[in-house]
Design brief:
The chain is of the alpha+beta class and 173 residues long. Helices cover 45% and strands 27% of the residues. The radius of gyration is 21 Å and the shape is elongated. The N and C termini lie far apart (71 Å).
Length: 173
């Protein structure tokens, strides 16, 4: 009888904890490694391949937009272990004849409208959109994947700001 009461109390306690919270507690990432990034990309339908520089991977999202990703701020940079950041970068080429004002307008629109990255012109003159995720304090795998997925969707929006004529012609089809 006493063991039945203990089992019932344990069951009642578990029933009070939401199922999602139980799963998240069991799958929290304290630090990143390349495998965590690759697993998140695969879970969202993106593909990846080594960039050949032993540090980054080339990513193709389901939308066919491309980016470059890496884990960063690692305790062991050579092995890419115990990393506290993930950086993903997409670079866009302006259309021929695109003015600096048009580029600035597209960048400002993205930065105002979207929350999952930042757009800018880098020192080499490349139009870039970057996201950076930290693991400080821990992050669930679901949250990690979702942040990357939302950023990839925000890239699609960036293309409508940056290539408005293509977006307008796509709507006409």
């Amino acid at each position: 009888m006493k063991s039945a009461l203990v089992a019932l109390a344990a069951f009642a306690t578990l029933a009070l904890i939401p199922a999602g919270a139980q799963a998240q507690n069991n799958d929290t990432i304290k630090t990143f490694d390349r495998a965590d990034l690759q697993r998140a990309l695969e879970a969202m339908g993106a593909t990846w391949e080594d960039a050949g520089d032993n540090r980054t991977i080339n990513i193709t999202f389901a939308s066919n937009l491309k980016a470059n990703g890496a884990v960063m701020a690692c305790d062991d940079d050579e092995q890419e272990k115990n990393c506290y950041g993930t950086s993903i970068l997409a670079i866009f080429d302006p259309e021929p004849g695109m003015t600096a004002e048009e580029i600035t307008t597209a960048i400002n629109t993205y930065n105002y409208e979207q929350n999952f990255g930042r757009a800018y012109v880098d020192p080499e003159g490349d139009v870039s959109v970057r996201m950076y995720i930290i693991s400080d304090g821990g992050i669930t795998r679901e949250n990690y994947r979702t942040q990357i997925e939302l950023w990839s969707v925000s890239l699609e929006y960036f293309t409508t700001y940056f290539y408005p004529e293509e977006a307008a012609s796509a709507k006409k089809k």
